[in-house]
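Lab notes, practical 5.
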Amino acid sequence: MNTRCIAVPPGAGVVKLSGNIGRTRAFTRLIVALVLGSFLMVQAEEPDSKYMRSYYAIEKADALAKKGQTDEAKTKYLEAQKVLKDIKAISPTWNSKAVSYRLNYVTERIETLSKPPVPAEVEGTEDANATVGSGAKAPGADVKLLSAGNEPRKALRLAPKAGDKQKAEMTLQMSMGTSGGEMMKIPAIKLALEVETKSVTPEGDISTEVLIEDVTLDAEGAAPQMAEAMKATFGTVKGMVIANTLSDRGATKKVEVRFPPGADPAARQSMEQMKDSFMNAQVVLPEEAVGPDAKWEVSQKLKTQGMTIDQKVTQHLVTVEESVLTIESMIEQSAANQKVANPAMPQLKMDLTKLTGASKGQVIVDLSKMLPTTATIEGGAEMLMSAGPQTMTMKTEVNIKIEAK
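Output from the prediction step:
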């Protein structure tokens, strides 16, 4: 986890902050992808007795499955499957995307529980629960030095020590809505993170692992259905490990994700969709020596949430005190005319007509560490999207705070 940049993906508030926050940015993108998936699912879940009956049956089945009560879980999944099939047969146009998504989920769970059990010596091992990203070297961003700043100048490089461990808390608060409509508050997500620097090569390559120690939600002021959907998804993120290798300037070379046993399929699917973000969205420090008041521009194409985004980040090095930097960032993102497949609801095909995003942030970092001392980010985005004949403008607002512990 290169802690040099934070980014929130398009469609869920586009925010990116460069400093010493790189892989925190990548994980944040995953988190918001899951939020967006939950948001879209909840939007589809209009009040209806049959649908809510299937929803609670699935919740119960998931809980039973986690306890190892396979037969009981399968019975509840079958119950939900029957209700969903009834809805599809009797009211085929009623929230068809949500019904199809839930139906596919319970069918997958029934098939999984119907298979012979995995031998005890294999079940729950890293290999059984791992998803490994490509080892190919990530394409570099276009870094342009705008001003070298004042003397004294020096080359900025990450310099953590192998074995270093740090803890931090990340809080993500979001609101979503449509143009002209009321913004919906999303439950605040608080993540307890532990980052360990595994190794540092003589060439400067840094290998790190980030453990998601805990996830909590603050649902005050949020819609109850939204809170329930998010609890079901985020409850399985605890224990996830993100490992990566990056250069001392922050260029990502390899990413690996290990899921905990019983991870929610929606979380797994979102993570699969987010692999390109880990590989393509690296932000690098300039090659040249710089000093206070230096500015540089990072331009790149990001692939996230099924979209290709053009991004420009202007970074301002406000102060340098030995290895401690204060950096301010201004971020612009745009995209147009492309098809989007939401990872949480793959059956829902959407067209993105236009996306614009802007954000700003400040971070205080120590180049000898992999987490910032503090970081704050705020911004938002607006997307014009269509699904078939329906067109809507989605607006998002995001506020992120990180504090090292």
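Observations recorded by the TA: DSSP finds seven helices and 15 strands in the chain. Residues 43-114 form a domain with the Methane Monooxygenase Hydroxylase; Chain G, domain 1 fold (CATH 1.20.58).
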